[in-house]
Structures are given as C-alpha cells and as structure tokens.
Amino acid sequence: MPKVTNGRVIYVKHPTGYYEPGVHTKYVEEQLDTDTVPLNGGILVKILAISSDPYMRHRMRDENIPLFAPPLKIGEPLDNFSVGKVIRSEDPAYAPGDYVSGYFTFENYVVHPGNITHVFKFCTKIPKLPGLPMSAFVGILGMPGKTAYQGWLFAKEKAKTSKTLYISVAAGAVGTFLIEYVKTIHPHLKIIASAGTPAKIDLLKSIGADVAFNYKETDIAKVLAEHGPIDIYWDNASGSTLDAALCNMSTFGLIVSCGAISSYNEDQGAVKHFEKVFERSLSIHGFIVGIGDEAKRALVEFEKEIPPLVLAGKIKLREHRFYGLKSAEQALRSVHTGENFGKAVVIVDEEGGAA
C-alpha cells in the first residue's frame, strides 16, 4: 500500500468553559507508510468511525486534577471509543479484515496497543451485522447503549412495582435507548422525559415518552409535581434538574446517577435539596459503564439481549453524522452545546457508515 495521508486531532489547550475547535484542539496531517510503520507485535487499524461524547469534557483538564476519566495530554491526539478495520497484524488474535471496537486515537490509522496506557484502553473483535453500519458499535451497540443497559439493571426490580420514570437529557444517545428499552420490558411505566429543543421534544414523544417537555421553557418542578410523584429518576443532568426531582420523588424512590451535564462547562452542579434523600428514604446508585465486576457481568448480558432488539427495530439507530476526521472537532463541540440530534458520530471512512 502506498503512503497515505494520516489526519490527527491534537489536544493543545485546556478549556476553562466551553470547548472550542481550533482553540483547544487542532487538526494536522502527516504522511504514513502503512506497509512499514512498526507494529511491535500489535495491529494497524484503519479507523472507520469515532464516538463524540459529553464526558470528553471531563478529560480536558490538567492532569493533576483527579477525576473518574483519564486526562487528555497536551500535544497528543484525542482518544475515545471507535471502530475500525485491521489492515496489518503481528498479533495472532487478529487478522487483516477483522473489524474491531476499541479506545483509539483520533487518527485515520492507529497502531494498537500504541501509546495509550490508561484504564479505558481496550480492543475487541466485533461482527458485521446485517442492515447496520459499523458506527452502531459506538452508539446503540457501544458505550451509550451499554451505559443505559447497565444502569437500568439497578432499577429493574423496582420498576416492577413503580408507576413513573423521569429521564433528564433524554434526547441523547443514552436517553433514547433507555426510553425504547424500558417501553419494551416495562410497558406499564409512565415515562416523563426532558430535552432542550422543540425538535427533540417531538422525537421523545415519537419513541414512547408519555410526557415530554422543554426544560428551558418549562418549570421542571411543576411538570414533575403534575405528573409524579417520581418513583425512578434517571439523572443525566444534576444541578437544578436533580433538585426538582428530589422535591418530587416518592417515598423509597430510586435515583440512578448517570451523568452531570449541567456542571460540565459551567459550575451549575450544586444541589440544594439533598435533605430529601433522608426525608423520603431515597436510594441513589451511581455508576460508570464497564467499571466493576457487576458491570462486566451486565455487559455479557447486553451482548445476548440487545443486538436482537436492535435488529428487530425495537431499539433504533439514530445518528448525527459528521463526515471526515476534519469534522471531529465540530462533533465534539456539538455534544457540549446540545446541537447534535441523535448520537454524534464521526464517519472517518465511508465503510463506517455503510449498512
């Protein structure tokens, strides 16, 4: 194979507010000979699609600040959940032509294991499923789908005797998966869902939300008081949204803490009504996808249960596609401002988006 142009998205500066393309990252190119690049016993992967996720904002920080997600390194490429195709291999576990899901750098071509050393690093072979693009493995069959599935296991038993479920930031990849999955296995639950634009509210209604409202234009507490009390709250927001939920939870209610997007770019994560936890005997279960033995067992069950539901159309693929590695910066910006509609994914190579 002749020399190719290898694009790279490099992290160059820590943001103090919202992430900005061209300021905190930059796109560069280099020439790469795919026949001679050293593999050191590993594999050379052609990247097909890359996920863009809100949690990446947590990684854009000084390495001395401790958080759950490993920090990005100034001068190094970004890395995140991706899918690709093996084009060279010195590892007997992989052969050219294999499709893989892994935590890879934002480049057209990546050597694995390479230089990534943090705990999120992984690489596993994945199948080509009929009627689905490979990009599905960074969405409904990837981290967002697995997040929703793993988190719902904490609520599954309580859901049997519950009446109401409230999901914040519900139009994202995790929220939409959760709505369709819950409607499939717990159709008796009334689902209340919130998002930030009229189009997203229409989406939530179309996929099964019984009550959908725009949190930017509506008093959250009033909506929850009208349609509650809330037996289960799936929290993607924290801050004032969590406060409104706390004041409208039923006794012995459950909060599944999945994210805190209100605090990602601005300091809006304060909770004022934490006393409701003991007043109403609430349970709160936080988690990070894939972390812990319980999570690992859940992901084994995910592989058995979810692909058939996706192939049957009960859980649908919804993607906001950004084409080409050059668009990765805009994809990252979109998930931090709410501009994306559906799972934000960078289609690096056309094969990644082809069903």
TrEMBL record:
Tell me which UniProt keywords the record has, alphabetically. Answer: Oxidoreductase
Give the top-rank taxon of the lineage listed in the UniProt record for this protein: Eukaryota
Q: Which residues form the Alcohol dehydrogenase-like C-terminal domain?
A: 173-297
Q: Which residues form the Oxidoreductase N-terminal domain?
A: 36-115
The keyword Oxidoreductase belongs to this UniProt entry's keyword annotation: yes
Signal peptide feature range: none
Does this entry carry the keyword tRNA processing? no
Name of this chain's protein:
Enoyl reductase (ER) domain-containing protein
The organism named in the record is Somion occarium
